[in-house]
């Protein structure tokens, strides 16, 4: 079966712009989580969605938002981009909320803000 | 902030040797998981150990968990060049936190 699909793979944006990243989870997985990975901060949890509701949120400013659709696909939006938002953004899906079974990760979207 | 700290930060070994990575964490957990990440790619789930388990095996992987010391170790036996990657522990409790990672290099 297909894995977690993230689009686009690479993105270059200008400071001040906004960006939307997409994640399609494994079929049947209802939980989608988002992470930001940078060399300096490592893997930082952004938020988790389950059944179209945000169930958990990390310590990121309100410029970072997300949503989940009825088919479990999720989008993440970052508004007013800053240079420090340059990172690898990873999406992970799981059967249930939380991490009872472990997560399956996508290959990520590499965002560069110039 | 990160929940887990991993040790060592970097490890370089010869093919065929064993590699051991350690993870320490701060709060109570439901389970602890180990992931592998090849350069610039997504993470791959390796193994999950529940808080009431002390040891688990999967192929060449052996994971131990000591909840009294809030620590876990990942042992990769008979390492191969293809094992070269970064390895992360992740703790599942009220939230899901990743450790800082260990960069493993296996020299052919």
Question: How would you sum up this structure, described in words?
Answer:
The complex is a heterodimer of chains A (114) and B (108). Chain A starts with a strand and ends with a strand. In chain A, the strands form 2 sheets. In chain A, strands 2, 4, 5, 6, 9, 10 and 11 form a 7-stranded mixed β-sheet that branches. A 4-stranded antiparallel β-sheet of chain A has the order 1-3-8-7, with no helix packed on it. Chain A has strands spanning 5-7, 10-13, 19-24, 31-38, 42-50, 53-57, 64-68, 74-78, 87-94, 104-105, 109-113. Chain A has 114 residues and is mainly β. By secondary structure, chain B is mainly beta. Helix content of chain B is 0%, strand content 57%. Chain B contains no helices and 11 strands. Chain B has strands at 5-7, 10-14, 19-24, 31-37, 43-50, 55-58, 61-66, 71-76, 85-92, 96-98, 102-107. Chain B is globular. The interface between A and B is medium-sized, with 25 and 22 residues.
Task: Throw out a few tags for this protein.
heterodimer, A: 114 residues, mainly beta, 7-stranded mixed beta sheet, 4-stranded antiparallel beta sheet, 11 strands, B: 108 residues, 5-stranded antiparallel beta sheet
So what's the overall shape of chain A? globular
Percent helix of chain A: under 10%
Mean of pLDDT of chain A: 93
Beta-strand segment tally of chain A? 11
Topology, number of strands of chain B: 11
Topology:
The complex is a heterodimer of chains A (114) and B (108).
Chain A: E1 5-7, E2 10-13, E3 19-24, E4 31-38, E5 42-50, E6 53-57, E7 64-68, E8 74-78, E9 87-94, E10 104-105, E11 109-113
Parallel strand pairs in A: 2-11
Antiparallel strand pairs in A: 1-3, 3-8, 4-5, 4-9, 5-6, 7-8, 9-10, 9-11
Chain B: E1 5-7, E2 10-14, E3 19-24, E4 31-37, E5 43-50, E6 55-58, E7 61-66, E8 71-76, E9 85-92, E10 96-98, E11 102-107
Parallel strand pairs in B: 2-11
Antiparallel strand pairs in B: 1-3, 3-8, 4-5, 4-9, 6-7, 7-8, 9-10, 9-11
